[in-house]
Automatic annotation (TrEMBL), chain A:
Keywords: Cell cycle, Cell division, Membrane, Transmembrane, Transmembrane helix. It comes from Nocardioides albus. Residues 1-22, 157-195 are annotated as: Disordered. One of its GO terms (biological process) is cell division. The chain crosses the membrane at residues 40-60. Residues 157-172 have a biased composition (Basic and acidic residues). This is Cell division protein FtsB. The lineage of its organism: Bacteria, Bacillati, Actinomycetota, Actinomycetes, Propionibacteriales.
Automatic annotation (TrEMBL), chain B:
The chain crosses the membrane at residues 26-47. Its main location: membrane. Belongs to the transpeptidase family. This is Cell division protein FtsI (Penicillin-binding protein 3). One of its GO terms (biological process) is cell division. It is found in: Membrane. Residues 71-213 form the Penicillin-binding protein dimerisation domain. InterPro entries: Beta-lactam/transpept, Beta-lactam/transpept-like, PBP_dimer, PBP_dimer_sf, PCN-bd_Tpept. Keywords: Cell cycle, Cell division, Membrane, Transmembrane, Transmembrane helix. Residues 267-577 form the Penicillin-binding protein transpeptidase domain. Coiled coil: none annotated. It holds the Pfam family PBP_dimer. It comes from the Bacteria.
C-alpha cells in the first residue's frame, strides 16, 4: 500500500513535499478506508422509493379506476333520475291537458259562464250584465259524430284514388302481358317468314 | 487417463457428427443464412408496420376499446304565450329483440312484453320468432324508465336477446289543441307539418358526441387517463307562440260544436289581439290529434284556415266602405235608394233577400248587408282605388306568420281587373282570402285604421326559409283614417244592435258594445271552378266597439242546415268573444251604443 502511496505524494502538492523534507521517512500508516456510507440504508431507501412509487401508482390507478366506476354508476343514476323527472313532468303535462281538465270539471258539474259582470272596487260599481250559468256556453267534450263530413269525403277520395291506381296497375299489367305475347308471337312467326 | 478416455468417448460421436454435417465453416454459413433470412423477414415486417402503414394497427388497437357515443341535443319546446308546452321532448327508448336468441322462449317473452309494455301478444310473438332476422322492433318511443325497467326485469328472469336503443320522444300533451299549427314529427323524428316543419332549424339543435376509452365497449365504463374527446350538444331553441292554449281549446270545441250542429263540412276561427296583432287562437275543424296523426287523412294534418282560400262574401263590404269613408266619398248617413236588382257586366246583382225599392243609409246597407247598396256606394271609387285599398288591407299576399303552407289568396292583378269584377269584389265575391288575411283586415278597422301584421311567434324567430317573423318584426301601416275606421266600427255595431235591419243579433255579447259583419258567400268548387251551390258563412267583428281589445273571425263551410252568417257563425262569435273578454278581464266601456240611423 505504502509503495503505492509514495509516488503519488509529489502529485498531491507542495504541502506534502515540504513535509517530507522536514520529517524523516517513516512508515505511512495505512490510510483509512474511503469513508463509505453504509450501503444497506441506501438500498432500502431506493427500494422503498421504488416500491412506494409503484404501489402508490397502483393505488392511485386503482382509485382512479374505482372513481371511474363510481362515475359510471352516478352517471347511470343521473340518467335514470332525469328520465324519471321527465316521465313525471310528462304526466303532469298530460294532467294539464285542457281536454282532461274540461272532462273533470264537467264531472264536478261545472259549466262555462255565459256572461259575467265585473265589480269595480274603488267606486263599487257593477259593470256588464251577469247571466245565470246554464250549459249553453259550454262546448261538448267530444265530437258527436265519429267522423266529420270532410273526413268522410277525404277518405272516399283516398279510396277512389287507390282503386284508380289499382285499376291502372292492372291495366298496365294486362298491357304488358299482351305485349309480351305479341313479342312471343312475332318471335314464333319470324322464323317462318325467314323460311 | 479416465478423463482422456471420457474425452475421447465424447469426441468420437462429435467427430462422427462433423463428418456427417460437413465442415464447420459450411455449417456456420448455413446457420448465418438462416438467421439472416429470419431477421430479414422480421425486418420486412417491421418496415411494413412502421414504414408503409403505421397508423392502421395503432387505430385498430385504439378502436378496440374506444367508445363513440352520440350526445343527443334536445329539441326545443313549442310553448304557448304563458309558457305551457304544446310540444316537448323527452328521452325515449326503443325496445329491440334478437329473434335468434328469443326464439326458444318466444311465447314466454311475448307474454312478458305484453304485460310490461302493452304490446300486442300475437304481433310480438311473430317478431320474436322471425327466422333469419337478428333485429326486430318490439316497441318504439317508450319512456326511458319503463323501457329500462322492462329489459332489466326480462334479464333477471333469464330472457336473453332484448335490448334498448335511443329513440327520442316528442310529446304533444294537449292532443288536438293547436295541432293544426304545431304540426308533428314522423316516426323517424323528421318534422312533417306545421311549425315543427317550418321552424325545424330553429328547434332542432345539434347533436354532440363523446369519444373515450372504455374498459369494455358494452359497459361503457370510462378508462381514466385514456382518450377523452367531447363535443357538447347544442340544444335547440324553444319557440314561443302567441297562442293562448286554454282559449285555443275553447275556440276549437265551440267551433266543433257549431260545425256539427249545422252539419257543415268544416270551419275555422281566429282570435286576434287588436292592439298587437298577436294571434291568440287559430282553430280548424275538423283537425287531427298530434299524438296520432295517422288516424286523420293527410288533408287535415295542417291548418286549412291558412292554406285554404275561399270567397269571403259580405264581411268584405266593411273594407269597401272603410275605403270610401277614408276618401270622403260617403258618410254613414249617405242615403241610398236600393233597387230590386242591379245590372253589372250583363248579369243582375241581387240581394240575399227579395225586396222592392229600399231606402237605406250607408249604415243600413251594412247592417242589412245589401249587395246592391254596397255596389252603388262603391261606384264612387275612381279606377284602381278599391284595389289599392284591398291590397293595403293585406289581400292577395301572405300574412307572414312564418308557415310556408299559407296561401296568398286571390286578388285580381291591375291588368285583369275590370268593372264587372269590381262590382262583385265590392261585396266579397271574385276575390279569395284565407281566414287570417280576413281577420287582419278586419283588425285594421278595429285598430283605428292601422293594419298590424298578424303574428304567431312571440318575440321573433327565423324559419327554415330564412324569414324573420314574430311580434318583433310585425309592421304597422295606416290604411284608412282614424275617423273612417271609427265610423265603420259604429256602422258594424248596427249589424248587431239594430232591432229592425240588423242581421246578426245572435252575435251580441251582453253588457258590451260589439261590432261585426256577417258574410254568406257562394263557394267555388275546386274541381269545376264554378259556384256549386254551397256556401261559406262567416262572421267577423271586434269588441268593445269604442276601444277594441279582440278581433274574432269565424267561417263555416257548407252548413247543411241552410243557415247564414248571422245564425250559424254569430253565436260562435258571441261565445268566443265573451270567453276572451272574460278571460282577459276586459271591462265594458260603459258608453252608449251607436244609434246611427239605418233607413230614411
Amino acid at each position: 500500500m505504502s509503495i503505492a502511496a509514495a509516488p503519488q505524494a509529489p502529485v498531491r502538492g507542495p504541502d506534502r513535499a515540504r513535509e517530507t523534507t522536514q520529517t524523516r521517512l517513516t512508515a505511512v500508516p495505512a490510510p483509512l478506508p474511503a469513508p463509505t456510507a453504509p450501503r444497506l440504508p441506501f438500498v432500502v431507501l431506493v427500494s422503498m422509493l421504488l416500491v412506494g412509487g409503484v404501489v402508490g401508482l397502483l393505488v392511485f390507478n386503482t382509485s382512479m379506476q374505482q372513481s371511474a366506476f363510481q362515475e359510471q354508476r352516478l352517471q347511470e343514476q343521473a340518467t335514470t333520475l332525469a328520465a324519471r323527472e321527465q316521465a313525471l313532468d310528462g304526466e303532469l303535462k298530460k294532467m294539464e291537458d285542457p281536454h282532461k281538465i274540461a272532462a273533470e270539471a264537467k264531472e264536478l258539474g261545472m259549466v262555462v259562464p255565459q256572461n259575467a259582470a265585473m265589480l269595480r272596487v274603488p267606486d263599487a260599481k257593477v259593470e256588464g250584465e251577469a247571466a245565470p250559468a246554464n250549459r249553453s256556453a259550454t262546448p261538448p267534450l267530444h265530437p258527436k259524430v265519429a267522423k266529420p263530413y270532410s273526413v268522410l269525403v277525404a277518405e272516399q277520395k283516398a279510396e277512389d284514388a287507390a282503386a284508380a291506381k289499382k285499376k291502372a296497375a292492372e291495366q298496365a299489367k294486362k298491357k304488358r302481358a299482351q305485349e309480351t305475347t305479341q313479342v312471343q308471337e312475332q318471335q314464333r312467326t319470324s322464323p317462318d317468314e325467314a323460311r | 487417463m479416465a478423463e482422456r478416455q471420457v474425452k475421447r468417448k465424447v469426441r468420437r460421436p462429435a467427430q462422427k457428427a462433423t463428418q456427417r454435417r460437413g465442415p464447420v465453416h459450411i455449417r456456420l454459413r448455413v446457420g448465418f443464412i438462416l438467421v439472416a433470412m429470419v431477421l430479414s423477414v422480421f425486418g420486412g415486417r417491421l418496415v411494413q408496420l412502421q414504414g408503409i402503414d403505421p397508423h392502421s394497427y395503432a387505430a385498430m388497437a385504439a378502436a378496440e376499446n374506444v367508445v363513440d357515443v352520440v350526445l343527443p341535443a334536445e329539441r326545443g319546446e313549442i310553448l304557448d304565450r304563458d309558457g305551457e308546452a304544446l310540444a316537448d321532448s323527452a328521452d325515449g327508448l326503443m325496445v329491440l329483440a334478437d329473434p335468434k336468441q328469443t326464439k326458444k322462449d318466444a311465447a314466454a317473452i311475448a307474454a312478458f312484453l305484453a304485460k310490461e309494455l302493452g304490446v300486442d301478444y300475437a304481433t310480438a310473438l311473430a317478431k320474436l320468432r322471425k327466422d333469419g332476422s337478428r333485429f326486430q322492433y318490439i316497441k318504439r318511443q317508450v319512456p326511458a324508465t319503463q323501457a329500462t325497467a322492462a329489459v332489466e326485469k326480462a334479464a333477471k328472469q333469464g330472457y336473453q336477446g332484448l335490448w334498448t336503443s335511443r329513440d327520442p320522444l316528442r310529446n304533444y300533451p294537449n292532443g288536438d289543441v293547436a295541432a293544426n299549427l304545431v304540426g308533428f314529427l314522423g316516426n323517424d323524428q323528421r318534422p312533417l307539418a306545421g311549425l315543427e316543419s317550418a321552424f325545424d332549424k330553429h328547434l332542432a339543435g345539434k347533436d354532440g358526441h363523446a369519444e373515450y376509452d372504455a374498459t369494455s365497449p358494452i359497459s361503457g365504463t370510462r378508462m381514466p387517463l385514456g382518450t377523452n374527446n367531447r363535443v357538447a350538444p347544442v340544444d335547440g331553441n324553444d319557440l314561443k307562440l302567441t297562442i293562448d292554449r286554454d282559449l285555443q281549446y275553447y275556440v276549437q270545441q265551440t267551433l266543433m260544436d257549431a260545425v256539427q250542429k249545422s252539419r257543415a263540412e268544416s270551419g275555422m276561427a281566429v282570435v286576434m289581439d287588436t292592439q298587437t296583432g298577436e294571434i291568440l287562437s287559430l282553430a280548424d275543424y275538423p283537425t287531427f290529434d298530434a299524438r296520432d296523426p295517422a288516424a286523420s287523412p293527410k288533408t287535415l294534418r295542417g291548418s286549412n284556415a291558412l292554406s285554404n282560400v275561399y270567397e269571403p262574401g259580405s264581411v268584405q263590404k266593411v273594407l269597401t266602405v272603410a275605403g270610401l269613408l277614408d276618401q270622403g266619398l260617403v258618410s254613414p248617413s249617405t242615403r241610398i235608394k236600393v233597387p230590386e236588382s242591379y245590372m253589372s257586366g250583363g248579369a243582375p246583382i241581387r240581394d240575399w233577400y227579395p225586396h222592392g225599392v229600399e231606402k237605406l243609409t250607408l249604415a243600413g246597407v251594412i247592417a242589412k248587408s245589401s249587395n246592391i247598396g254596397t255596389v252603388m256606394a262603391a261606384d264612387k271609387y275612381a279606377d284602381g282605388q278599391l284595389r289599392e285599398y284591398l291590397s293595403a288591407f293585406g289581400m292577395g299576399r301572405r300574412t307572414g306568420l312564418g308557415l310556408d303552407t299559407e296561401s296568398n289568396g286571390l286578388l285580381a292583378s291591375p291588368e285583369t281587373w275590370n268593372a264587372a269584377d269590381e262590382d262583385r269584389i265590392d261585396f266579397g265575391q271574385s276575390i279569395s282570402v284565407n281566414a287570417v288575411q280576413m281577420t287582419a283586415a278586419l283588425n285594421t278597422i278595429a285598430n283605428g285604421g292601422v293594419r298590424i301584421d298578424p303574428s304567431l311567434i312571440a318575440g321573433g324567430a327565423t324559419n327554415n326559409s330564412g324569414a324573420e317573423v314574430g311580434t318583433d318584426t310585425a309592421q304597422r301601416t295606416r290604411v284608412v283614417s282614424q275617423d273612417a275606421a271609427a265610423q265603420t266600427a259604429e256602422m258594424m255595431e248596427r249589424v248587431i244592435n239594430d232591432p229592425v235591419n240588423g242581421t246578426a243579433k245572435q252575435a251580441a255579447v251582453p253588457g258590451y258594445r260589439v261590432s261585426g259583419k256577417t258574410g254568406t258567400a257562394q263557394r267555388v268548387n275546386s274541381e269545376c271552378k264554378c259556384y256549386d251551390g254551397t256556401n261559406t258563412v262567416s262572421f267577423g267583428g271586434f269588441a268593445p266597439t269604442d276601444d277594441p281589445r279582440f278581433t274574432v273571425y269565424v267561417a263555416i263551410h257548407d252548413p247543411a242546415n241552410g243557415g247564414g252568417g248571422g245564425s250559424v257563425t254569430g253565436p260562435v262569435f258571441s261565445q268566443i268573444m265573451s270567453f276572451a273578454l272574460r278571460r282577459y278581464g276586459v271591462p265594458p266601456t260603459g258608453t252608449e251604443p251607436s244609434k246611427m240611423p239605418t233607413g230614411w
